[in-house]
Amino acid sequence: MSLGKILAKRIGYGLILLIAVVVLNFTLITIAPGDVADSIAGDMGGADAEVLAEIRSRYGLDRPFAVQLGRYISSIAALDLGYSYFYNAPVTELILQRLPATLLLVFSSQILAIAVGLLLGVMAARKPNSFTNLIVTFLSLFGFAAPVFWTGILLIILFVAIWPVFPVGGMMSASLIDAPWYEQWINIAYHLVLPMVTLASIYLALYSRLTRASMQEVLGSDYVRTARAKGLAENKVFYKHALKNSLGPLVTVAGLQFSAVISGAVVVEAVFSWPGLGTLALQSILARDTPTIMGILFLSSLVVIVVNILTDMILRMIDPRIRAD
Amino acid sequence: MKRILKTVATSVATAALLATPTMAEEPKKGGTLTMAIQQTPRHLNPAVQSGTATGQPGTQLFASLLRYDEGWNPQPFLAETWEVSSDGLSVTINLVKGATFHDGAPITSEDVAFSIDTVKANHPFKSMFAPVETVETPDANTAILKLSKPHPALLLAMSSQLLSIIPKHVYGDGQDPKSHPANSEGVVGSGPFKLVEFKRGEHVILERYENYFMEGLPYLDRIVMRILPDESTRAIALESGELQMSGFESNPRNIVRLKKNGALRVSSEGYAAIGPVNWLAFNTKGEKTSDPKVRQAIAYAVDREFINKALNLGTAPTALTGIHPGSPFYDATVEAYDLDIDKANALLDEAGYAKGSDGMRFALSVDYGWPAMKPYAEYMKPQLKKIGIDVAVRSSADFPTWAKRISTWDFDMTMDNVFNWGDPVIGVHRTYSSDNIKEGVIWSNTQQYSNARVDELMEMAGATNDSNKRKELYAEFQQIVANELPLYPIFASPYHTVSSTSVGNAPDSVWGTSSPLDRVYLK
Questions:
Q1: B233 contacts in A (CB within 8 Å)?
Q2: For B161, which residue in chain A has the nearest alpha carbon?
Q3: Could you give the ipTM of this predicted complex?
């Protein structure tokens, strides 16, 4: 099959998936007892029947479910994510305000996890009975076992309370709103360290184990033996021949994990008060702010679908065997 | 006129009193106060949005007509003087001269009338200004409120976040004030601080308004309100000095820990007006809970002292009635239902629920709506087993789920926390009034309690300005509801304001951090 055909097929599947995500989630949110009017009343310390009725009619919540769903789908089709009931602002605006923070967190933690995971995995594979291997085993056990919020709180206690080197949360010191951009960026990087490390910790474990296992497998294969036999330098065998071939599983998993990274970001953002999509998602879910929840779900499914397609394409690039199929 | 002189005299006296401690420590001008608020406000305009998230930044941005001190005494604010007519049907307000909005336009009686109309039409607490029929504006500095009946809650309803004075030339442009763009961006306020930036999920940054109408105030250059929903994060930030103040701290463990820190001041003052009372509510139309004897038995079986010692670690004041213990109308002489298991068992026997062979009488469920209420709901299970009631704890996924269940009367018992909001007329009547049994409305009379005498007492207490008379009426009211027990009050929320010792004049008035922080300074 040609690349174009495959791409078209993938995009087609992606669209079906998107529609399913929208319909399912909208249904689930709407059939749950209570609605945004109740949560607004709760936020305000109470309200009377008129106020509640007014909120419901303003947002069309008193309409039949089918009408509400139809309206939502037609507005999504027109690429309009709607208007947040809770924050009185367009959902697109709310999401765009938060998106950069989440992307920064997600991508930086993934880069960190892949880079360090790869390094540790390779080192461990090279010397299977070494101290490095022990560290990798320990880190991966820890990373798998420790819930991400717990790691986050632990890091806060260590590096904020006991040994205060990092700020407790947030993305940038408010005192810098008038400062030049480079000062702001340095400050953001400083605030990024702990949440990035926390989010990376789970994937670091996964990636290092994966690299080690696939490296060990490749190193035992015939062509590596051949390469060594013909007298190639060990480093060349290792990095040029073995490493490239063991990257496949890592790329696949990293791509698959992307959706998990986004959900992990929700937790990390809550712990570190990181002003990203995760905190917005959490608040909107608690407030039953349907348009905002739907907007975030729509966008994150879109991102996951795109990343999965990209993963496919990257795999085809690094592994000629897939291209051949 | 006598009244005017009196108010001026008391305010001068209080000003002198307030001035004494500040003499010893000269307040310093300048500096940035970093404090926490716990959630992103929907927007920043308290005239059309209640709640503490909007109230804390909102009271910095918008001034009200009056403010209150630590002892529930009204103080002049935008209103320089105010006079209630002897029949209680008219209130004359003289505005302070020279006050301006943040865009420089003068604050006039037109704006006051507009603000009252807006609040009356849009604010969720309809009882605040319901008796106000018209607001006359004979001149730019005078507003006269005409009432249909004496309205004792009016002065409190003119303070703090309950009546924000908003500019007519901004909000009167025909757009719906509830979704007006100026509620969140480019806010034109009347208070001590103006808006620099509101970033949802991140912070609200406020800056001193140079032409603020109170001479020499505010002391602070800036207030940064960081939005920090996580209580452990806030506690650590307070300890590390990253935060200098945080209100509404209510986790007993954190409060006990922070109290041990010498660099922090932990105060329970400042929550009497908000008046949060926690209780175990009964569905008085429930199959078992419709019997007052069953409700009383449960109250005798619940050990309030254990809850306050073991669950609240001594941080929460005891509450015996639905009126907050900090209110002048609180009656501490009502039946307290101190722990008495024998009496509880006897009451249930009397009610006709004999113990079965397994020692149990019947089953009930107890709800809770948000995580902080969970320990209290769970405590009911082992405790009520002692009197033969098999309690099932029912949790709700989120607040709307719980609100739906309770407001449609699909419950036996629930833990709840309801705010008084200043005067009982605003926040207490709604819980007991038989007019307010409204399906689908949370924090209405969800107990479905109805007693003609109680209705009558509330109505009388809500229609007289004589505070001694009101005390009597509310005392009788509290005695009745304590006996019939539609709900069993347990404690007042352990709200505390935590501030660094470097913060001077920490807000201890009855409105706490939901009041203008214009006198707060950094040492």
A1: 156, 168-169, 271-273
A2: A44
A3: 0.80
